[in-house]
From TrEMBL:
Coiled coil: none
All copies of domain Amino acid permease/ SLC12A, residue ranges: 42-429
PANTHER family assigned: AMINO ACID PERMEASE (PTHR42770:SF16), AMINO ACID TRANSPORTER-RELATED (PTHR42770)
Protein name per Swiss-Prot or TrEMBL: APC family permease
Entry keywords, A to Z: Membrane, Transmembrane, Transmembrane helix
Keyword Transmembrane tagged: yes
Organism: Glycomyces terrestris
Amino acid sequence: MSAPSPASAVQSALARDKLGTLSLLHFSLTAATPLTVIAGGVVVMFAVAGQIGIPLGYVIIAVSLWLFSVGYTAMARHIANAGAMYAFVARGLGRVPGVAAAWVAATSYCALQASLYGLLGFTAQGLIARAGLDLPWWVWALVAWALVGLLGTRAVDINAKVLAVLLTVEVAVILMFSASNFANAADGLSFGAFAPTALSGEAAGAVLALAVIGFIGFESPTVYGEEARDRKRTVARATLATIGVLAFVYIASSWSIITAVGDDQVVAAATGDLDLMFTLAGEQLGSAWVTIGQVLLLTSVTAAALSFHNTTARYLFALGREQVLFTWLGRTSVRTCAPVAASVTQTVAGGLVLVLWAVLELDPVVHLFYYLGTASGIGLIALILTCAVAVLVYFARDRRDESAWSARIAPVLAVLAMAGVLYLSVLHFHTLLGVEKGSLLPKLVPIVFAALALLGAAWGLFLKRARPEVYAGIGHGAKAPLVQAAERAAVPVGAAGER
């Protein structure tokens, strides 16, 4: 195989040394959409669970994800791949499971990003209608879609700067609202929300699933490992910092709502007013803050859509570069090194979803944001569990000078914790969706993801038989062309890269 030309090499490489710890933190925190989680997710959790143990649920999930991140970031010190969890599964459990994980990951992230346009369009429609311009939700969703698509083709550090500004304002307002809630306590400061009995029964599974979805994005620093400065440190720092910041914000804000309304009244208040967060802000700080909060909700969702767009594009780029999918997905801009082809593909996919929902006149909040977003969350929980198992197996073969805690103990605990979360989430998925037990939708979502995994595995087996050189490079990222060349030449991989 001849050496690639300089131009082609540039067109298949991401930017190097562009992102520090703070930039990675901006991507991961904005993907989690903290204001959306608090203003919408937390209030919904009170209503769905009928219990006050939401802060306890966030504590449980934060600890579980922290355990996962210990081994996850340790593995990231040895593997840099824009495909992140796909590559980790491929290197830990094998190439066929890796391709299966890739199909689930790409679909889940793409669906999660597209779901955000439903909430975004609905929120923008309400805000702008007050100014006298009343247009359908999908018009504003398409405006945001075009903006995100444009920024997705720009240099990665420009995206980080945009997200930094939006995130700073968003978190500042969340903290201000929470402080106001604590200052206006209904019955004083109560710790009842942290009692073991505060979260139990079928509702516990729904709460834990929603809590995990609220943290989705914490894993994204590894996606940018190839573009990070000193990735062995920055990726781990950004991942752990994301979990810590989100845990503090979610626990404090959900606890503050309970404090402001009262232990005995918060469930009824949330059930009767899904805008409870903004209602409290209006009562305590003035009606102007309701509008400010809703505007920031709009920018929060837009920022999250941009962050997930970048994550999805890099998964597609990784699969294209390794020739697991269409090779043109692995092309990057000569000038900015952004994964332009994968970014445009993700933009087209999101646009098709918007057109479909608009033509079928489906509800943007219930059917797009909530159903599609929650369904994709189930896929990502399954992906995190699979990756946790991969980390455990990877270090079981070779600890690679990592501590016993990072390579053995934490990964085992993470597998147990995430297995429990996935089991409860699937078992009580009907509660999460607000439909009857035995309904088709809660059964259909796990079946769809299982089918995707099987199709991905089948494709991996096809590559093994029909394109062994491509199969050999699966999970090797930038080293894949070298591994593939060695496979074609039928020589030991050696310096070309680790099998």
